[in-house]
C-alpha cells in the first residue's frame, strides 16, 4: 500500500469520431467500475424534452432509446452498466448498447459521474479511425446514459492468437502495426488512452484471415494540453507506466510503456512485471525489474527485444515515441521482408513462437478480472470445457485433460486466495486508517478541551483583575477626596495665618 495506485487499481472500474450531431462517436468503457459519474441535479422528463435542455446536455439525445433501437441479448454487465446487442430500427444494423447508471449525488459512489462520461464522449466524437471503436449514438434518460457502440464481435486479440498452435513474429507485428496505427492517430491529436492492455485490444470480427484490430475503452483517456500538468492514479497495475506509479506528470509516453508490456506478453506469454501481489507488481514497474528469460525468448529475434527495451524505459523523455516505434527496424523489417518474398514468389521463413504460454496467460488473466467489463467474452473457457467434456477414451488423452484441468483449478484457486488476501489487506488498511483518524480526533478533542480550559482561566483572571481595578479605583477616589479636603484645610489655615500677620503689622 505504498502508493495510491494500490487503491485505485483495486477498484478497476473501465472501456471514435463525429460526423453528425448524434452519429459516429467512439467506444464505451470496459472498466465501468472505475468511472465515477459525477453529481448534478437531474431534471424532470418534461424538462428533458425541451430543445434548450437537450442542447445543455452535451448533445445526448433526451429520447427513448427503444423508439430507435430494438434491444436484444445481454452481452455483458459491470458494476454500473449493462451491455446489450441492439438493432437500429431504421437500418437494421446491429450495435452494442451500453446502459450506464448515472451518479445522482456527488457524495455517492454508486453510478458514474457526468464529468467523466462527457469527457470520454467528447474525445470519442473527435476521433475516427479504422482501428478504433466507433460510437454511433448517445441517449440519456433520468437514470441512465446509453452509448450506442460499434458491435465488436471478434473477441480479444490474445484469445484469437492463443487458439493457434504457434505464432510467427511476422504475424505478431501485423497485429502490433495496427495497434501502433491506432495509437499514432490518437497521439497526433494529443489524446492519451492511458489504459492499453490485452482486454482493450479487440477484433472487429474473425471472418477474415487478418482480422482488424479495434482499440476500445476510452474511459480514462485524456487530452494532453501543453502547459497543463496532469497527474492521476489509474489504470491496471500490470500495464501502467512508472510515472503513474510514482504520481508524476503524465503524457502520451505512458501509452508507449503499455505497448512495450503488451509486446513482451505477446511474444512470450509471460508478463514482465507481474508479481505475487499488487504491491510487488508496482515495485517491479517502478524499478523496471524485468529481463528476457531464455525459457520464454529463445526463439525471439534481437530486433524484437530491442523494440521492447526502447519502450520499457523509466524516463518518459527517453522512451520511444509513437512515430519512432513505427519507424523501428523490427516493424519496418517485417514489411520489407514480406514485400521481398512477394516479389520472389517464395514464402518467407518465419520464427515460430509457441502459444501455449500465451493461452495460459489469457486463461489466468480472464479468471482474475473483476466482473466489470463492457464486453464479456462468454467463450473464454469454452475450449477448456470442451476438452474436459470430450476427453478421449485413451488413457493418455484422459490424463492430459485431467492435468490441464488441475492446472486451471490450481490457477483459479491461487487467484482466489490472492484476491482474498488482497481484500483482507484492504480491510486492514482501512482499519488502520480508521484507528489513525480516531486517534487524531481524540487529539483534536483534547486540544479543544485544553483551549477551553485556558480560555476559562483567562476569563477568571480577567474578572479578578477587573474587580481589583475597581477596588483600586475606589481607593484612589477616596484618597483624592481626602487629599482635596486636607488641601482645603491647609489653604484655610494659611489664610488665617496671613490675616494674623497682617493684624500684628498694624499694631506695630
TrEMBL record:
It is an enzyme of class 2 (transferase). It catalyses: L-seryl-[protein] + ATP = O-phospho-L-seryl-[protein] + ADP + H(+); L-threonyl-[protein] + ATP = O-phospho-L-threonyl-[protein] + ADP + H(+). The keyword Nucleus does not apply. One of its GO terms (biological process) is intracellular signal transduction. Keywords: Apoptosis, ATP-binding, Coiled coil, Kinase, Nucleotide-binding, Phosphoprotein, Serine/threonine-protein kinase, Transferase. ATP binds at residue 102. GO terms for molecular function: ATP binding; protein serine/threonine kinase activity. GO terms for cellular component: cytoplasm; nucleus. Residues 434-482 form a coiled coil. Its EC number is 2.7.11.1. CDD domains: STKc_DAPK3. Its cofactor is Mg(2+). Signal peptide: none annotated. Residues 69-331 form the Protein kinase domain. Belongs to the protein kinase superfamily. CAMK Ser/Thr protein kinase family. DAP kinase subfamily. This is non-specific serine/threonine protein kinase.
Amino acid at each position: 500500500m505504498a502508493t495510491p495506485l494500490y487503491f485505485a487499481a483495486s477498484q478497476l472500474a473501465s472501456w471514435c469520431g463525429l460526423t453528425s450531431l448524434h452519429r459516429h462517436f467512439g467506444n464505451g468503457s470496459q472498466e465501468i467500475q472505475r468511472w465515477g459519474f459525477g453529481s448534478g441535479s437531474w431534471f424532470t422528463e418534461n424538462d428533458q424534452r425541451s430543445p434548450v435542455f437537450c442542447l445543455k446536455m452535451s448533445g445526448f439525445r433526451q429520447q427513448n432509446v427503444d423508439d430507435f433501437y430494438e434491444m436484444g441479448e445481454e452481452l455483458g454487465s459491470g458494476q454500473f452498466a449493462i451491455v446489450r446487442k441492439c438493432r437500429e430500427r431504421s437500418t437494421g444494423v446491429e450495435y452494442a448498447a451500453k446502459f450506464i447508471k448515472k451518479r445522482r449525488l456527488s457524495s455517492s459512489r454508486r453510478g458514474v459521474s457526468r464529468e467523466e462520461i462527457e469527457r470520454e464522449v467528447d474525445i470519442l466524437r473527435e476521433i475516427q479511425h479504422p482501428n478504433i471503436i466507433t460510437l454511433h449514438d448517445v441517449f440519456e434518460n433520468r437514470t441512465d446514459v446509453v452509448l450506442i457502440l460499434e458491435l465488436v464481435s471478434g473477441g480479444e486479440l490474445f484469445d484469437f492468437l492463443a487458439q493457434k498452435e504457434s505464432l510467427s513474429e511476422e504475424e505478431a507485428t501485423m497485429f502490433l502495426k495496427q495497434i501502433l496505427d491506432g495509437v499514432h492517430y490518437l497521439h497526433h491529436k494529443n489524446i492519451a488512452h492511458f489504459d492499453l492492455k490485452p482486454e482493450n485490444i479487440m477484433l472487429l470480427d474473425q471472418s477474415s484471415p487478418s482480422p482488424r484490430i479495434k482499440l476500445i475503452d476510452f474511459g480514462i483517456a485524456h487530452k494532453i494540453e501543453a502547459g497543463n500538468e496532469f497527474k492521476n492514479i489509474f489504470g491496471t497495475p500490470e500495464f501502467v507506466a512508472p510515472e503513474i506509479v510514482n504520481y508524476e506528470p503524465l503524457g502520451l509516453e505512458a501509452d508507449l510503456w503499455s505497448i512495450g508490456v503488451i509486446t513482451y506478453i505477446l511474444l512470450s506469454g509471460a508478463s514482465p512485471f507481474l508479481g505475487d501481489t499488487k504491491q510487488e507488481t508496482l515495485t517491479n514497474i517502478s524499478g523496471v525489474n524485468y529481463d528476457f528469460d531464455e525459457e520464454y525468448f529463445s526463439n525471439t529475434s534481437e530486433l524484437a527485444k530491442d523494440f521492447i527495451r526502447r519502450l520499457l524505459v523509466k524516463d518518459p523523455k527517453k522512451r520511444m515515441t509513437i512515430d519512432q516505434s513505427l519507424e523501428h527496424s523490427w516493424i519496418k523489417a517485417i514489411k520489407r521482408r514480406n514485400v521481398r518474398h512477394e516479389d520472389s514468389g517464395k514464402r518467407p521463413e518465419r520464427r515460430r513462437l509457441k502459444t501455449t504460454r500465451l493461452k495460459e496467460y489469457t486463461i489466468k488473466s480472464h479468471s482474475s478480472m473483476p466482473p466489470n467489463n463492457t464486453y464479456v467474452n462468454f467463450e473464454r473457457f469454452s475450449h477448456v470445457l470442451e476438452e474436459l467434456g470430450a476427453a478421449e477414451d485413451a488413457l493418455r488423452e484422459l490424463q492430459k485433460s485431467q492435468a490441464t484441468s488441475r492446472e486451471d483449478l490450481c490457477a483459479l484457486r491461487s487467484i482466489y486466495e490472492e484476491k482474498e488476501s488482497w481484500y483482507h489487506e484492504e480491510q486492514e488498511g482501512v482499519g488502520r486508517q480508521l484507528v489513525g483518524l480516531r486517534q487524531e480526533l481524540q487529539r483534536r478533542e483534547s486540544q479543544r478541551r485544553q483551549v477551553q480550559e485556558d480560555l476559562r482561566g483567562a476569563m477568571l483572571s480577567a474578572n479578578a483583575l477587573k474587580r481589583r481595578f475597581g477596588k483600586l479605583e475606589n481607593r484612589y477616589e477616596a484618597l483624592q477626596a481626602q487629599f482635596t479636603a486636607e488641601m482645603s484645610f491647609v489653604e484655610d489655615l494659611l489664610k488665617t495665618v496671613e490675616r494674623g500677620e497682617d493684624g500684628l503689622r498694624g499694631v506695630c
